[in-house]
Amino acid sequence: MAMGFSSVPLLRRYPIYSPALPYFFSLRPNRRVNIAASLSTAEESTSSSLIQPTPSRTRWKPMCLYFTQGKCTKMDDPMHNDTFNHNCSLELMQNAAGLKNVRQQELEYFLVLDLEGKVEILEFPVLLFDAKTMDVVDLFHRFVRPIKMHEERINQYIEGKYGKLGVDRVWHDTAIPFAEVIEQFEVWLGERQLWRNELGGCLNNAAFVTCGNWDLKTKVPQQCTVAGMKLPPYFMEWINLKDVFLNFYKRRAPGMLSMMRELQIPLSGSHHLGIDDSSNIARVIHRMLIDGALLQITARRDPRSPEKVEFLFKNRIV
What we know:
The strands form two sheets. A seven-stranded mixed sheet has the order 5-4-3-6-7-8-9. Helix 7 (about 255-265) packs across helix 8 (about 275-290). It is about 30% helix and about 15% strand. The chain is α+β, with helices and mostly antiparallel strands.
């Protein structure tokens, strides 16, 4: 079965996972968000919404990675739809008895980010988590093509990173340079009224949430240097979920998997596929909000010296 973008094979052997109940993708018909707006006019988008009218089901399905980038052309194919998920919303079953502990958050939205790529960034996934509905309401997802490597090295890099996950084909079909990713991301932010360059470039009532400081403290500035661009101002502060977890539960969890084990949340999808890791981090956020956690900024750059980062929590994961 061909998948999505042009005539390319179905994500080779994309792993099929056991259901991750009670956490699974499902329909939220009252929240429809247009993904096409996040694409340039030169890109093809056959999907009109991130949240599609598919039947609610408990069987976990891998996300269509062409769809996340607005490039799926198989939305009318029943077999394709039965195999892949085309819905960004996460139905996170709520403990009704525990909802009384939910605190009003200082921010309306959390931008859940989990980069992939050690040499250069290879994947830039962001899930838009609504603090009021406690659900994912939109996403921005791009694969990133390195600009300082020759083609043979890129192929080796991608095979080593994504080949074992069976998604190297979609990476080669869709990856674009980092500067283009950021350009499209800023359009996406602006259309959702989360950011305006005219207002100093800071996020509007939103903050990035990462699992650790590496993504925004280290990797994004490095990639900006490689790309010959200034660090965008909306990357000046973020929430390190590890630090919030430590201070709220009084338990150390050095990574996403350990947080999920502590909270007895089953892993969904493929670890080290950025879009799946972001979804799992969103599940952790959801559970922490139900338990009464307050997600606050944990790290902030000095605007006069962006290389200097102030960590705002006394107790934190180093």
